[in-house]
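Supplementary Note 3. Input sequence used for the single-chain structure prediction.
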Amino acid sequence: MPESNNWPQSVQKNIDNFWQDTLLKSLPHWITPNLLSVIRLAMAPFIVLYLIWGMYVPAIVAFIFAALLDTWDGALARVRGQITGWGMILDPLADKTLIIMLALFLLVVYPFKILIFSIIVFELLIMLGAAVKAGQAPPGQNAIKKANFWGKSKMLAQVLGLVCAFLWLAVPLAWLYDLSVVLIWLSLVLQIKSAVSYI
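The predicted structure, written as discrete structure tokens, is reproduced below.
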């Protein structure tokens, strides 16, 4: 296969190597990828509470940290060879739970409600589709697929879009709102592309 067709895998490998050479090599062995996913899952309600209380800066910092944990647990799983069936369920569950909970908050306070509602609907449909596919899989066969390039790009656009939306709530500048709309729209396009690539 031509090298040009492998560039997403090459980027992923470079990111994994960066985290391995910096942060991950100092993590004790008892910190597993699944533990990082559980931490992300547990952080979701606290981030929402910060938002409800109007504590936007702590909420944004915690959300960015949760997003970084998402990159760390994947890199840790690949570097240590700790990719498990349970982890392949827990990781996307933590992602989608966090995004849906934050989007539900924005549904109340964000002007472009149909855009936020679309995020929630798409995430729920993907979760439902994954559950149906897993239920139809033959016994002993793992029906959960790894996130592809489009899915990871969608997550990045989603995180950046939501961060801009929260920043707009803290500092209501028009350009922050406009940027959040563009990024969230981009995340929806990437989400559709990712879903189509799995079919």
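The two ends are 22 Å apart (CA to CA). The chain has one domain: 31-198.
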